[in-house]
Amino acid sequence: MLQILFDALSLGSLYALGALGIALIFGVMRLVNFAHGDVIAFCVFALLWPSTDAMAIVFAGQLPWYLLVPFVLLCGAGLSVLCEIIVFRRFRQANPATMMIASFALGFVIRYFLLMLFSSRPKSISLLPALSQPVEIFGARLPLLQLITIVTTMVILIGLTLFMRQTRFGLEMRAAAENFSMARMLGVRANRVIMGAFALSGALAGAIALIFGSQTGTLDIQMGASIMLMAFIATVIGGLGSLGGAVLAGFLLGAASVIMQVMLPIDARPFRDAFVYGAVILVLLFRPQGLIAARGTKERV
Amino acid sequence: MSLLALSDITIRYSRLTAVRDVSFSMDEGEILFITGPNGAGKSSLLRAIAGVTPVAGGRIDLAGHEITGQAPENIARLGFSMVPEGRDVFGSLTTEENLLVGTGMHARERGWRSRAADELEAVYATFPMLKERRHGQAGLLSGGQQQMLVIGRALMTNPRLVAIDEPSLGLAPNINDQVYERLIALRAQRQLTLLIVEQSSARAMMVGGRMILMRGGQIVLDGDARTLGNGEAIQAAYFGYEDH
After folding, report:
1. Alpha-carbon radius of gyration of chain A
2. For chain B (length 244 residues), average pLDDT per consecutive 10?
3. Shortest Cα distance from B87 to chain A (angstroms)?
Protein backbone atom coordinates (compact mmCIF):
# COMPACT_ATOMS: atom_id res chain seq x y z
CA MET A 1 0.00 0.00 0.00
CA LEU A 2 2.71 2.43 1.07
CA GLN A 3 4.65 1.30 -1.97
CA ILE A 4 1.77 2.36 -4.22
CA LEU A 5 1.54 5.73 -2.53
CA PHE A 6 5.23 6.38 -3.02
CA ASP A 7 5.14 5.19 -6.61
CA ALA A 8 2.23 7.52 -7.27
CA LEU A 9 3.94 10.46 -5.60
CA SER A 10 7.24 10.01 -7.37
CA LEU A 11 5.70 9.57 -10.81
CA GLY A 12 3.36 12.46 -10.03
CA SER A 13 6.38 14.57 -9.08
CA LEU A 14 7.82 14.23 -12.57
CA TYR A 15 4.53 15.13 -14.21
CA ALA A 16 3.95 18.01 -11.80
CA LEU A 17 7.39 19.51 -12.43
CA GLY A 18 6.92 19.11 -16.18
CA ALA A 19 3.46 20.65 -16.08
CA LEU A 20 4.77 23.55 -14.04
CA GLY A 21 7.42 24.29 -16.65
CA ILE A 22 4.78 24.46 -19.34
CA ALA A 23 2.30 26.45 -17.25
CA LEU A 24 4.91 29.07 -16.31
CA ILE A 25 5.57 29.93 -19.94
CA PHE A 26 1.95 29.66 -20.97
CA GLY A 27 1.09 32.09 -18.18
CA VAL A 28 3.18 34.96 -19.47
CA MET A 29 3.21 34.25 -23.20
CA ARG A 30 0.15 32.13 -24.04
CA LEU A 31 2.66 29.79 -25.63
CA VAL A 32 2.30 26.03 -25.32
CA ASN A 33 5.96 25.16 -25.42
CA PHE A 34 6.29 21.73 -27.01
CA ALA A 35 10.05 22.11 -27.06
CA HIS A 36 10.04 21.71 -23.28
CA GLY A 37 10.46 17.93 -23.51
CA ASP A 38 13.49 18.30 -25.72
CA VAL A 39 15.03 20.75 -23.28
CA ILE A 40 14.72 17.93 -20.73
CA ALA A 41 16.44 15.53 -23.12
CA PHE A 42 19.16 18.08 -23.79
CA CYS A 43 19.83 18.42 -20.06
CA VAL A 44 20.26 14.69 -19.69
CA PHE A 45 22.66 14.45 -22.60
CA ALA A 46 24.61 17.41 -21.28
CA LEU A 47 26.01 14.87 -18.81
CA LEU A 48 27.74 12.95 -21.59
CA TRP A 49 30.60 13.61 -23.89
CA PRO A 50 29.27 13.71 -27.48
CA SER A 51 29.81 10.34 -29.15
CA THR A 52 27.73 8.02 -31.26
CA ASP A 53 29.04 4.88 -29.57
CA ALA A 54 26.69 2.65 -27.65
CA MET A 55 28.89 3.14 -24.62
CA ALA A 56 28.11 6.35 -22.85
CA ILE A 57 31.12 8.49 -22.08
CA VAL A 58 30.12 10.15 -18.89
CA PHE A 59 31.52 13.62 -18.65
CA ALA A 60 29.69 16.11 -16.50
CA GLY A 61 27.83 13.18 -14.96
CA GLN A 62 30.96 12.40 -12.95
CA LEU A 63 30.84 15.64 -11.06
CA PRO A 64 30.00 15.42 -7.38
CA TRP A 65 26.31 16.05 -6.77
CA TYR A 66 26.73 19.58 -5.45
CA LEU A 67 28.28 20.61 -8.77
CA LEU A 68 26.21 18.28 -10.91
CA VAL A 69 22.85 19.65 -9.82
CA PRO A 70 23.60 23.34 -10.47
CA PHE A 71 25.30 22.41 -13.74
CA VAL A 72 22.22 20.62 -15.09
CA LEU A 73 19.83 23.28 -13.83
CA LEU A 74 21.95 25.95 -15.50
CA CYS A 75 22.05 23.95 -18.75
CA GLY A 76 18.25 23.84 -18.77
CA ALA A 77 17.82 27.48 -17.90
CA GLY A 78 20.44 28.53 -20.41
CA LEU A 79 19.02 26.56 -23.31
CA SER A 80 15.51 27.67 -22.47
CA VAL A 81 16.47 31.35 -22.38
CA LEU A 82 18.39 30.89 -25.61
CA CYS A 83 15.25 29.46 -27.23
CA GLU A 84 13.38 32.55 -26.13
CA ILE A 85 15.94 34.99 -27.45
CA ILE A 86 16.60 33.24 -30.75
CA VAL A 87 13.14 31.91 -31.60
CA PHE A 88 10.16 32.87 -29.48
CA ARG A 89 10.97 36.56 -29.23
CA ARG A 90 10.27 36.85 -32.94
CA PHE A 91 6.85 35.34 -32.48
CA ARG A 92 5.62 37.62 -29.68
CA GLN A 93 2.99 39.24 -31.84
CA ALA A 94 2.02 36.02 -33.61
CA ASN A 95 -1.09 34.09 -32.69
CA PRO A 96 -0.84 31.18 -30.23
CA ALA A 97 -1.16 28.53 -32.98
CA THR A 98 1.83 29.93 -34.85
CA MET A 99 3.89 30.02 -31.67
CA MET A 100 2.93 26.44 -30.92
CA ILE A 101 4.08 25.26 -34.33
CA ALA A 102 7.31 27.18 -33.83
CA SER A 103 7.84 25.35 -30.55
CA PHE A 104 7.27 22.00 -32.29
CA ALA A 105 9.85 22.90 -34.89
CA LEU A 106 12.31 24.08 -32.28
CA GLY A 107 11.81 20.83 -30.38
CA PHE A 108 12.75 18.87 -33.47
CA VAL A 109 15.83 21.01 -34.01
CA ILE A 110 17.02 20.27 -30.49
CA ARG A 111 16.19 16.58 -30.85
CA TYR A 112 18.05 16.20 -34.14
CA PHE A 113 20.96 18.14 -32.78
CA LEU A 114 21.18 15.51 -30.04
CA LEU A 115 20.71 12.77 -32.63
CA MET A 116 23.66 14.12 -34.56
CA LEU A 117 25.92 14.18 -31.53
CA PHE A 118 24.78 11.07 -29.72
CA SER A 119 22.95 8.88 -32.28
CA SER A 120 19.51 7.49 -31.59
CA ARG A 121 20.74 4.46 -29.62
CA PRO A 122 19.67 4.55 -26.01
CA LYS A 123 22.60 4.74 -23.64
CA SER A 124 22.76 3.47 -20.14
CA ILE A 125 24.50 5.31 -17.36
CA SER A 126 24.30 5.11 -13.64
CA LEU A 127 23.82 8.57 -12.35
CA LEU A 128 24.29 9.05 -8.63
CA PRO A 129 24.36 5.29 -7.97
CA ALA A 130 24.33 5.81 -4.21
CA LEU A 131 20.70 6.73 -4.52
CA SER A 132 19.41 3.43 -5.78
CA GLN A 133 19.92 1.64 -2.48
CA PRO A 134 16.67 0.74 -0.79
CA VAL A 135 15.62 2.15 2.53
CA GLU A 136 13.05 0.71 4.84
CA ILE A 137 10.16 2.85 6.06
CA PHE A 138 7.21 1.49 8.00
CA GLY A 139 7.97 -1.97 6.71
CA ALA A 140 8.06 -0.96 3.05
CA ARG A 141 11.30 -1.17 1.12
CA LEU A 142 11.66 1.94 -1.02
CA PRO A 143 14.49 3.05 -3.24
CA LEU A 144 16.16 6.04 -1.64
CA LEU A 145 15.88 7.76 -4.97
CA GLN A 146 12.10 7.71 -4.80
CA LEU A 147 12.17 9.41 -1.43
CA ILE A 148 14.61 12.00 -2.67
CA THR A 149 12.48 12.61 -5.74
CA ILE A 150 9.44 13.32 -3.62
CA VAL A 151 11.27 15.45 -1.10
CA THR A 152 13.07 17.41 -3.82
CA THR A 153 9.82 18.06 -5.64
CA MET A 154 8.18 19.30 -2.46
CA VAL A 155 11.14 21.58 -1.78
CA ILE A 156 10.99 22.93 -5.34
CA LEU A 157 7.24 23.50 -5.12
CA ILE A 158 7.47 25.27 -1.76
CA GLY A 159 10.45 27.29 -2.93
CA LEU A 160 8.68 28.33 -6.10
CA THR A 161 5.54 29.28 -4.21
CA LEU A 162 7.56 31.45 -1.85
CA PHE A 163 9.39 32.95 -4.80
CA MET A 164 6.14 33.81 -6.55
CA ARG A 165 4.49 35.20 -3.41
CA GLN A 166 7.34 36.99 -1.66
CA THR A 167 9.64 38.46 -4.28
CA ARG A 168 9.33 41.48 -6.50
CA PHE A 169 9.96 39.30 -9.54
CA GLY A 170 7.30 36.81 -8.51
CA LEU A 171 4.79 39.62 -8.12
CA GLU A 172 5.60 40.92 -11.58
CA MET A 173 5.29 37.44 -13.06
CA ARG A 174 1.90 36.88 -11.51
CA ALA A 175 0.67 40.28 -12.65
CA ALA A 176 2.00 39.67 -16.16
CA ALA A 177 0.42 36.23 -16.31
CA GLU A 178 -2.94 37.70 -15.55
CA ASN A 179 -2.84 40.76 -17.78
CA PHE A 180 0.34 41.28 -19.70
CA SER A 181 -0.33 44.65 -21.28
CA MET A 182 -1.63 46.14 -18.02
CA ALA A 183 1.50 44.95 -16.25
CA ARG A 184 3.63 46.61 -18.93
CA MET A 185 1.71 49.84 -18.56
CA LEU A 186 2.74 49.73 -14.91
CA GLY A 187 6.37 49.52 -15.93
CA VAL A 188 6.88 45.75 -15.77
CA ARG A 189 9.55 44.92 -18.34
CA ALA A 190 8.18 42.38 -20.79
CA ASN A 191 11.54 40.87 -21.76
CA ARG A 192 12.67 40.45 -18.19
CA VAL A 193 9.52 38.67 -17.11
CA ILE A 194 9.43 36.38 -20.13
CA MET A 195 13.11 35.52 -19.85
CA GLY A 196 12.61 34.84 -16.16
CA ALA A 197 9.75 32.47 -16.95
CA PHE A 198 11.89 30.65 -19.52
CA ALA A 199 14.82 30.41 -17.11
CA LEU A 200 12.61 28.96 -14.36
CA SER A 201 10.96 26.60 -16.77
CA GLY A 202 14.35 25.46 -18.10
CA ALA A 203 15.69 24.89 -14.60
CA LEU A 204 12.63 22.75 -13.89
CA ALA A 205 13.43 20.79 -17.05
CA GLY A 206 16.91 20.27 -15.64
CA ALA A 207 15.46 18.98 -12.38
CA ILE A 208 13.28 16.52 -14.29
CA ALA A 209 16.28 15.41 -16.32
CA LEU A 210 18.23 14.63 -13.18
CA ILE A 211 15.38 12.73 -11.55
CA PHE A 212 14.38 10.85 -14.66
CA GLY A 213 17.95 10.11 -15.65
CA SER A 214 18.83 8.62 -12.29
CA GLN A 215 15.52 6.73 -12.07
CA THR A 216 15.71 4.98 -15.41
CA GLY A 217 19.42 4.84 -15.98
CA THR A 218 18.72 4.89 -19.70
CA LEU A 219 19.17 7.93 -21.84
CA ASP A 220 17.21 8.23 -25.02
CA ILE A 221 16.72 11.29 -27.18
CA GLN A 222 13.00 10.56 -27.23
CA MET A 223 12.74 10.52 -23.47
CA GLY A 224 11.62 14.10 -23.06
CA ALA A 225 8.71 13.66 -25.39
CA SER A 226 6.95 11.05 -23.26
CA ILE A 227 7.08 13.14 -20.10
CA MET A 228 6.17 16.19 -22.11
CA LEU A 229 2.95 14.60 -23.34
CA MET A 230 1.79 13.73 -19.82
CA ALA A 231 2.92 17.10 -18.50
CA PHE A 232 1.02 18.88 -21.25
CA ILE A 233 -2.10 16.90 -20.42
CA ALA A 234 -1.63 17.83 -16.78
CA THR A 235 -1.48 21.54 -17.63
CA VAL A 236 -4.69 21.25 -19.63
CA ILE A 237 -6.51 19.33 -16.91
CA GLY A 238 -5.20 21.71 -14.29
CA GLY A 239 -6.45 24.72 -16.22
CA LEU A 240 -3.98 26.20 -18.70
CA GLY A 241 -1.91 28.88 -17.04
CA SER A 242 -2.82 27.93 -13.50
CA LEU A 243 0.34 26.89 -11.65
CA GLY A 244 -1.48 25.29 -8.74
CA GLY A 245 -3.74 23.42 -11.12
CA ALA A 246 -0.80 22.11 -13.12
CA VAL A 247 0.86 20.68 -10.04
CA LEU A 248 -2.37 19.17 -8.72
CA ALA A 249 -3.19 17.57 -12.06
CA GLY A 250 0.38 16.28 -12.40
CA PHE A 251 0.07 14.41 -9.14
CA LEU A 252 -3.42 13.18 -10.03
CA LEU A 253 -2.13 11.82 -13.33
CA GLY A 254 0.75 10.10 -11.60
CA ALA A 255 -1.64 8.58 -9.09
CA ALA A 256 -4.07 7.48 -11.79
CA SER A 257 -1.29 5.77 -13.76
CA VAL A 258 0.08 3.92 -10.75
CA ILE A 259 -3.33 2.92 -9.40
CA MET A 260 -4.44 1.59 -12.77
CA GLN A 261 -1.19 -0.31 -13.07
CA VAL A 262 -2.09 -2.09 -9.84
CA MET A 263 -5.84 -2.37 -10.08
CA LEU A 264 -6.40 -3.28 -13.69
CA PRO A 265 -6.67 -6.99 -14.54
CA ILE A 266 -3.38 -8.36 -15.82
CA ASP A 267 -4.59 -8.60 -19.39
CA ALA A 268 -5.65 -4.97 -19.46
CA ARG A 269 -2.41 -3.58 -18.02
CA PRO A 270 -0.67 -3.06 -21.36
CA PHE A 271 -3.52 -0.68 -22.15
CA ARG A 272 -3.04 1.32 -18.99
CA ASP A 273 -2.38 4.54 -20.84
CA ALA A 274 -5.60 4.17 -22.77
CA PHE A 275 -7.46 4.07 -19.47
CA VAL A 276 -5.57 7.07 -18.17
CA TYR A 277 -6.37 9.07 -21.29
CA GLY A 278 -9.98 7.94 -21.01
CA ALA A 279 -10.09 9.40 -17.51
CA VAL A 280 -8.56 12.60 -18.89
CA ILE A 281 -11.34 12.88 -21.46
CA LEU A 282 -13.94 12.39 -18.74
CA VAL A 283 -12.42 15.15 -16.61
CA LEU A 284 -12.35 17.54 -19.56
CA LEU A 285 -15.97 16.75 -20.44
CA PHE A 286 -17.06 17.86 -16.99
CA ARG A 287 -14.59 20.66 -16.45
CA PRO A 288 -13.48 21.98 -19.84
CA GLN A 289 -11.84 25.00 -18.18
CA GLY A 290 -9.63 22.69 -16.10
CA LEU A 291 -9.68 21.86 -12.42
CA ILE A 292 -8.51 25.30 -11.40
CA ALA A 293 -9.40 27.86 -14.04
CA ALA A 294 -6.70 30.50 -14.41
CA ARG A 295 -7.64 34.14 -14.35
CA GLY A 296 -6.94 36.32 -17.32
CA THR A 297 -6.80 33.53 -19.86
CA LYS A 298 -9.37 35.49 -21.81
CA GLU A 299 -8.00 37.05 -24.96
CA ARG A 300 -5.58 39.85 -24.41
CA VAL A 301 -6.73 42.92 -26.30
CA MET B 1 6.95 73.22 -23.45
CA SER B 2 3.95 70.95 -23.26
CA LEU B 3 3.95 67.74 -21.24
CA LEU B 4 2.18 65.71 -23.89
CA ALA B 5 2.00 66.47 -27.59
CA LEU B 6 0.34 64.45 -30.32
CA SER B 7 0.78 65.45 -33.93
CA ASP B 8 -1.12 63.96 -36.85
CA ILE B 9 -1.79 60.66 -35.09
CA THR B 10 -3.48 58.03 -37.23
CA ILE B 11 -4.47 54.62 -35.85
CA ARG B 12 -5.67 51.75 -38.00
CA TYR B 13 -7.04 48.34 -37.14
CA SER B 14 -6.36 46.40 -40.32
CA ARG B 15 -8.46 48.38 -42.82
CA LEU B 16 -10.53 50.35 -40.36
CA THR B 17 -9.20 53.78 -39.50
CA ALA B 18 -10.04 54.47 -35.87
CA VAL B 19 -8.21 57.79 -35.53
CA ARG B 20 -7.29 60.15 -38.36
CA ASP B 21 -4.68 62.93 -38.12
CA VAL B 22 -5.38 63.93 -34.55
CA SER B 23 -3.18 66.60 -32.97
CA PHE B 24 -3.37 68.19 -29.56
CA SER B 25 -1.09 69.02 -26.68
CA MET B 26 -1.41 69.27 -22.92
CA ASP B 27 0.41 71.45 -20.43
CA GLU B 28 1.59 70.38 -17.02
CA GLY B 29 -1.23 70.62 -14.47
CA GLU B 30 -3.98 70.74 -17.05
CA ILE B 31 -7.16 68.67 -16.87
CA LEU B 32 -8.39 67.54 -20.25
CA PHE B 33 -11.53 65.59 -21.05
CA ILE B 34 -11.82 63.71 -24.31
CA THR B 35 -15.47 63.04 -25.00
CA GLY B 36 -17.46 61.69 -27.88
CA PRO B 37 -19.77 58.89 -28.90
CA ASN B 38 -18.88 55.23 -29.08
CA GLY B 39 -16.32 54.45 -31.75
CA ALA B 40 -14.99 57.99 -31.90
CA GLY B 41 -11.46 56.70 -31.31
CA LYS B 42 -11.03 58.01 -27.76
CA SER B 43 -9.79 54.79 -26.21
CA SER B 44 -7.57 54.03 -29.20
CA LEU B 45 -5.91 57.37 -28.68
CA LEU B 46 -5.19 56.66 -25.00
CA ARG B 47 -3.91 53.18 -25.80
CA ALA B 48 -1.63 54.64 -28.46
CA ILE B 49 -0.15 57.10 -25.98
CA ALA B 50 0.38 54.23 -23.51
CA GLY B 51 2.20 52.29 -26.23
CA VAL B 52 -0.09 49.27 -26.35
CA THR B 53 -1.71 50.17 -29.67
CA PRO B 54 0.65 50.94 -32.56
CA VAL B 55 0.14 54.13 -34.53
CA ALA B 56 0.03 54.10 -38.31
CA GLY B 57 1.32 57.63 -38.57
CA GLY B 58 2.20 60.74 -36.60
CA ARG B 59 4.32 61.44 -33.59
CA ILE B 60 3.80 61.48 -29.82
CA ASP B 61 6.02 63.35 -27.38
CA LEU B 62 5.94 63.01 -23.62
CA ALA B 63 7.98 65.14 -21.24
CA GLY B 64 10.44 66.09 -23.95
CA HIS B 65 10.95 62.57 -25.33
CA GLU B 66 9.54 61.11 -28.48
CA ILE B 67 7.58 58.03 -27.45
CA THR B 68 6.09 56.94 -30.77
CA GLY B 69 6.55 53.18 -31.04
CA GLN B 70 8.15 52.88 -27.61
CA ALA B 71 7.38 49.94 -25.33
CA PRO B 72 4.66 50.57 -22.73
CA GLU B 73 7.08 49.95 -19.85
CA ASN B 74 9.39 52.70 -21.11
CA ILE B 75 6.53 55.14 -21.55
CA ALA B 76 5.44 54.40 -17.99
CA ARG B 77 8.95 55.27 -16.84
CA LEU B 78 8.59 58.76 -18.29
CA GLY B 79 5.69 59.42 -15.94
CA PHE B 80 2.65 58.27 -17.87
CA SER B 81 0.21 56.18 -15.90
CA MET B 82 -2.83 54.61 -17.41
CA VAL B 83 -6.14 53.49 -15.94
CA PRO B 84 -7.64 51.47 -18.77
CA GLU B 85 -11.25 50.96 -19.64
CA GLY B 86 -12.80 48.08 -17.73
CA ARG B 87 -10.26 48.79 -14.98
CA ASP B 88 -8.10 45.67 -15.49
CA VAL B 89 -7.57 44.87 -11.84
CA PHE B 90 -5.23 41.89 -11.29
CA GLY B 91 -8.01 39.79 -9.80
CA SER B 92 -5.92 36.97 -8.38
CA LEU B 93 -3.53 39.33 -6.60
CA THR B 94 -4.35 40.99 -3.30
CA THR B 95 -5.30 44.66 -3.16
CA GLU B 96 -1.89 45.58 -1.83
CA GLU B 97 -0.06 43.51 -4.44
CA ASN B 98 -2.02 45.33 -7.13
CA LEU B 99 -0.81 48.63 -5.75
CA LEU B 100 2.80 47.44 -5.56
CA VAL B 101 3.16 46.18 -9.14
CA GLY B 102 3.91 49.66 -10.44
CA THR B 103 6.58 50.55 -7.86
CA GLY B 104 9.14 48.17 -9.34
CA MET B 105 10.26 50.51 -12.07
CA HIS B 106 11.91 52.74 -9.51
CA ALA B 107 13.78 49.79 -8.02
CA ARG B 108 17.11 51.07 -9.37
CA GLU B 109 16.79 54.35 -7.49
CA ARG B 110 18.06 54.77 -3.96
CA GLY B 111 15.52 54.63 -1.19
CA TRP B 112 12.74 53.37 -3.43
CA ARG B 113 11.46 50.96 -0.82
CA SER B 114 10.74 53.61 1.77
CA ARG B 115 9.30 55.84 -0.92
CA ALA B 116 7.03 53.03 -2.09
CA ALA B 117 5.92 52.50 1.51
CA ASP B 118 5.14 56.21 1.89
CA GLU B 119 3.28 56.16 -1.37
CA LEU B 120 1.27 53.16 -0.20
CA GLU B 121 0.29 54.97 2.99
CA ALA B 122 -0.71 58.04 0.98
CA VAL B 123 -2.96 55.93 -1.25
CA TYR B 124 -4.47 54.24 1.78
CA ALA B 125 -5.09 57.66 3.33
CA THR B 126 -7.01 58.71 0.23
CA PHE B 127 -8.87 55.41 -0.05
CA PRO B 128 -9.24 53.98 3.51
CA MET B 129 -11.45 51.23 2.12
CA LEU B 130 -8.45 49.81 0.25
CA LYS B 131 -6.50 49.53 3.48
CA GLU B 132 -9.29 47.52 5.08
CA ARG B 133 -9.19 45.07 2.22
CA ARG B 134 -5.43 45.19 1.64
CA HIS B 135 -4.88 41.44 2.02
CA GLY B 136 -8.12 40.43 0.32
CA GLN B 137 -8.26 39.21 -3.26
CA ALA B 138 -8.71 42.22 -5.54
CA GLY B 139 -11.08 40.35 -7.83
CA LEU B 140 -13.63 40.23 -5.02
CA LEU B 141 -13.86 44.02 -4.64
CA SER B 142 -16.98 45.78 -5.89
CA GLY B 143 -16.88 47.81 -9.10
CA GLY B 144 -16.52 51.11 -7.25
CA GLN B 145 -13.77 49.72 -5.03
CA GLN B 146 -11.94 48.37 -8.06
CA GLN B 147 -12.11 51.79 -9.69
CA MET B 148 -10.55 53.32 -6.56
CA LEU B 149 -7.93 50.56 -6.61
CA VAL B 150 -6.84 51.17 -10.19
CA ILE B 151 -6.64 54.91 -9.59
CA GLY B 152 -4.53 54.20 -6.51
CA ARG B 153 -2.44 51.76 -8.54
CA ALA B 154 -1.82 54.40 -11.19
CA LEU B 155 -0.70 56.88 -8.51
CA MET B 156 1.78 54.40 -7.01
CA THR B 157 4.08 54.85 -10.00
CA ASN B 158 4.47 58.50 -9.03
CA PRO B 159 3.25 59.74 -12.41
CA ARG B 160 3.23 63.20 -13.97
CA LEU B 161 0.30 62.43 -16.22
CA VAL B 162 -2.57 60.11 -15.39
CA ALA B 163 -4.89 58.98 -18.16
CA ILE B 164 -8.21 57.43 -17.19
CA ASP B 165 -10.45 55.67 -19.67
CA GLU B 166 -14.15 55.91 -18.83
CA PRO B 167 -14.03 55.95 -15.05
CA SER B 168 -17.83 56.08 -14.95
CA LEU B 169 -18.30 52.87 -16.87
CA GLY B 170 -20.50 50.44 -14.97
CA LEU B 171 -20.61 52.51 -11.79
CA ALA B 172 -23.70 53.78 -9.95
CA PRO B 173 -23.98 57.60 -10.17
CA ASN B 174 -23.29 58.21 -6.47
CA ILE B 175 -20.17 55.98 -6.58
CA ASN B 176 -19.09 57.84 -9.67
CA ASP B 177 -19.45 61.13 -7.79
CA GLN B 178 -17.18 59.75 -5.09
CA VAL B 179 -14.58 58.70 -7.65
CA TYR B 180 -14.51 62.19 -9.15
CA GLU B 181 -14.41 63.84 -5.75
CA ARG B 182 -11.24 61.91 -4.95
CA LEU B 183 -9.76 62.61 -8.37
CA ILE B 184 -10.24 66.35 -8.03
CA ALA B 185 -8.81 66.30 -4.52
CA LEU B 186 -5.81 64.26 -5.68
CA ARG B 187 -5.18 66.59 -8.56
CA ALA B 188 -5.03 69.62 -6.27
CA GLN B 189 -2.89 67.75 -3.78
CA ARG B 190 -0.29 66.41 -6.22
CA GLN B 191 -0.49 68.90 -9.10
CA LEU B 192 -1.44 66.01 -11.35
CA THR B 193 -2.09 66.39 -15.01
CA LEU B 194 -5.26 64.48 -15.86
CA LEU B 195 -6.43 63.14 -19.19
CA ILE B 196 -9.90 61.65 -18.85
CA VAL B 197 -11.94 59.91 -21.49
CA GLU B 198 -15.70 59.98 -21.01
CA GLN B 199 -18.52 59.21 -23.34
CA SER B 200 -20.73 61.97 -22.03
CA SER B 201 -19.66 65.58 -21.75
CA ALA B 202 -21.85 66.14 -18.68
CA ARG B 203 -19.07 65.27 -16.26
CA ALA B 204 -16.59 67.52 -18.02
CA MET B 205 -18.99 70.45 -17.72
CA MET B 206 -19.41 69.78 -14.00
CA VAL B 207 -15.71 69.48 -13.27
CA GLY B 208 -14.51 72.14 -15.70
CA GLY B 209 -11.20 72.26 -17.51
CA ARG B 210 -10.52 71.72 -21.17
CA MET B 211 -12.60 69.46 -23.36
CA ILE B 212 -11.96 67.85 -26.70
CA LEU B 213 -14.86 66.33 -28.54
CA MET B 214 -14.15 63.53 -30.98
CA ARG B 215 -16.29 61.94 -33.58
CA GLY B 216 -15.40 59.48 -36.33
CA GLY B 217 -11.74 59.46 -35.34
CA GLN B 218 -11.30 63.22 -35.54
CA ILE B 219 -11.40 66.19 -33.20
CA VAL B 220 -14.52 68.27 -33.85
CA LEU B 221 -14.37 70.67 -30.92
CA ASP B 222 -11.64 71.83 -28.56
CA GLY B 223 -12.16 74.39 -25.83
CA ASP B 224 -13.20 75.20 -22.29
CA ALA B 225 -15.63 72.55 -21.06
CA ARG B 226 -18.05 74.99 -19.44
CA THR B 227 -18.32 77.37 -22.40
CA LEU B 228 -18.57 74.55 -24.90
CA GLY B 229 -21.18 72.84 -22.79
CA ASN B 230 -23.58 75.75 -22.89
CA GLY B 231 -23.53 76.22 -26.63
CA GLU B 232 -25.47 74.43 -29.28
CA ALA B 233 -22.27 73.66 -31.09
CA ILE B 234 -21.64 70.70 -28.83
CA GLN B 235 -24.95 69.08 -29.61
CA ALA B 236 -24.45 69.54 -33.28
CA ALA B 237 -20.93 68.19 -33.01
CA TYR B 238 -21.88 65.27 -30.84
CA PHE B 239 -24.74 64.08 -32.97
CA GLY B 240 -23.27 65.22 -36.22
CA TYR B 241 -26.28 67.21 -37.47
CA GLU B 242 -24.28 69.05 -40.06
CA ASP B 243 -23.79 65.81 -41.95
CA HIS B 244 -27.46 65.30 -42.62
Report:
1. 19
2. 91 91 93 90 93 94 93 94 89 94 85 87 90 92 90 92 89 85 87 90 85 90 79 67 48
3. 10
